[in-house]
Amino acid sequence: MFPKPLMKPGFAICLAKNENQVLVRLDRILKSEKYPIEGRVLKKHAFIQLPEEDRTFLSPYLNLSLKEEEDNLILEGRFSPHPHVWTAFMAIYGVLGLMGLGGIVYGWAQSMIGEPAGMMWAGPISLLAIAFVYGAAVIGQGLTAQEMYSLRNVVDRAVENGAKDTKKETAA
Predict the structure, then answer these.
(1) Domain boundaries, the chain
(2) What would the pLDDT profile of 9-47 be if each residue is shown by its tens digit?
(3) Of the N and C termini of the chain, which has fewer Cβ atoms inside 10 Å?
C-alpha cells in the first residue's frame, strides 16, 4: 500500500529529559560553515531552510519545537513550504471552495425559480480544481524530497551529537 501523502509531513524524536540542549547544538551547527543550511533558534522553537541562493518556490521549511512530556522531551518537526507559499495555497483552497459553494447556491436558487441550474456545476468543478492543487502540492513534496532529507539530516546530527556527549558524561 502507498503511504498517505500529507499536507505537512512531520516527525517526532523522543529525547531524555536532560537533552534540553539539542536546540543549542542545532544553533551551533547552523552557525558553522560545514552545513549549507540557514535557520534561527529561539528558546524552544527553531526553523531551518536552505540558503536563499539554493531555494526555489517549492523548497521546504522545517519548523522544530521542543515539548516536555512526562519524563521525556519531544522534538517535533514539521515540513512545509515557506509560510508565504503555504498562505497562498490556503488562499487558493479557500477561493476555490467559496466559488464552488457560491455556484451551488446560485444554481439552487435558479432551480427554485424554474430556470436551468447550470451553475450547479461549479461545485464539482471546484472540487476537481482543489484536487488538482492538492496533487500539485504532493508532486512538489516529491520534487523536494532531497531538500527535506538535507534539513532532517542537520536535525539528526544535532540529536546524535547530544547522544554522544551524554555517553561521554556517563562514562567519566
Answers:
(1) 1-172
(2) 888 888 876 666 788 888 888 887 777 888 888 888 999
(3) N
